[in-house]
Amino acid sequence: MRINTNVSSLGAQEAAQNTNKAISSALEKLSTGLRINSAADDASGLAIADKLRTQVSSINQGIKNGNSAVSLLTIADKAMNEQSKILDTIKTKLIDANTASTSDTGREAIRKDIGKLLEQLDNIASQTNYNGRSLLADVKDGKLTGKNTDSLTFQIGERNTDMIQTAQINATTANLGGGEQVMSKVKAGESAKLSNVEGGTLEVTGKSAAVNVTLSGNLGKLTADTGALVLTVDPEDTNLMAKLKDITNLTQGSGASKNQFTLAAAATADLRAIDFDSVKLTNATATNAKFSVTETSGFNIKNNELGSTNDLTITAKQDIKKGETSVVANSNANQSLTVTGTAGLNTIITGNLGSFNSSVASVIEATNSKDIAALQKLVDDGVTGITRGSGNKFNLTAGAKDLGSIDFVDAKLTTSAAGNFTTTNTKDKISITNNSDTKITVTNMDAKSASNLESLKNLQEGELTREVAASFQAVVNDSLDQLNGYRGDIGSTINQVNSAVRNLMTQSTNVKAAEAVIREVDYAEESANFNKLNILSQAGSYAISQANATQQNVLRLLQ
């Protein structure tokens, strides 16, 4: 028997301490309702539960986004519903104006009323917003810009790919009602008048007919394309130089800036600085013709053999750097090719001279309605290189010039000479086709006919005639179709968002339940465990008491 160390008491004390710790943990679980209160409780379970908690939070935010999206889209839908009512009223007024029982005075009153209604339609488009975000049109500094709104996108879900998007909207008078204007089968000598048409592209193409094109009337801005001039010489046509006459009134221009060419209000607009995609020059008569291409830093000739009957001479302001200095050919015609420019050229020339074609945006300046097929004089001041073409051809490529745009006033389009033309405009594009390779771009054409609601709004006093009222009825119908299209997209998006929200609510419930299984405590199980630990704690205290009492028996041995 020992006195200094009471092993029994120490063992009982250790057991009691462990029991007390377990009781503390059980009480924490019972008081918080969570099985995992720290990483020490269940490290792997904590990681899984935290990830599920984040997923639930993300899903719940997606649900909030969806509800906000529905509110936003509902605002847009209700606003466009009011715009539809305005258009309904305008349609009835146009019908009223297109009847013999309505006097000119009555039609003028209708015009004013329609103008006010269309102003309100634009007001609705500019004022409708959600939290400062314009919904029906692009607005900057409180004013309509004429552009579409950006597509509305909503993240309805936990991932950044869970997006729902609407179509772009532009419910303004400038955009609504822009239908098609088509003039087909316009024969040579007849006029195809292009008035009140939106900006777009006017393409003129032809193959075998000589065509005169005159621009007059309210065309607005005429924009010229830019590009490179390519001259192709075909060795099969040995008579080209004898047939090709001087070309006059054809210049490239030099660095014209935008809006530089402006005519007075009463001026007549002819073709000036027009960019042609392709100009074909054939069967002209001339001898000793010469092409000039400026060169100041030298060039290289890698091949000097010409198997033709034409003589080709190349000269420059600088010394020829490499290769041969001349070319050999058999010819009775004294033709020459002068190559000049601003950059060194790597040149390969083979074969004899043949047909001549220019393409890719050569710039034409013609006054007094010059015949395109008879344009004179070619001046190329921006050639940047000579390259070999297919077969025995070689190409001369000219650099592009920035032509900008040209303002035209008092313009119309007329066609004369052989061939049929088809003119088509769909909102922003006009194409005139006659199997040629010319291209003209027309933008910002002043609109006065039944092209959109803005032209109806801008009618002046006395301009609302029966004919105009009849033509604008179709514009209103087109506008209603556009609005219904916007509203249809909005309605479909609302249904899509509502469906997504319902699905997210189901996901949130299930994921939250999965997290609860891992994180939360089972009270039935934990309460039973607590009762067990409580009993063990009481028993441990009794055991410590008995262990301490056994040491007192040593005193009896000392009596």
From TrEMBL:
Output the InterPro entries linked to this UniProt entry: Flagellin, Flagellin_C, Flagellin_N
Report if keyword Secreted is assigned: yes
Q: Which Gene3D superfamilies match?
A: f41 fragment of flagellin, N-terminal domain
- Keyword Secreted assigned to the entry: answer is yes
Question: Where in the cell is the protein located?
Answer: Secreted; Bacterial flagellum
Coiled-coil residues are none
Q: Give the GO cellular component terms, alphabetically.
A: bacterial-type flagellum; extracellular region
Protein name per Swiss-Prot or TrEMBL: Flagellin
| Record's keyword terms, sorted | Bacterial flagellum, Cell projection, Cilium, Flagellum, Secreted
Where is this chain primarily localised?
secreted
* Function statement: Flagellin is the subunit protein which polymerizes to form the filaments of bacterial flagella.
- One Pfam family of this chain: Flagellin_N
- The record places domain Flagellin C-terminal at 475-558
Q: Which organism is it from?
A: Arcobacter sp. AZ-2023
**GO molecular function per UniProt:** structural molecule activity
Q: Would you identify the family this protein belongs to, as annotated?
A: Belongs to the bacterial flagellin family.
Query: Flagellin N-terminal domain: which residues?
Result: 3-139
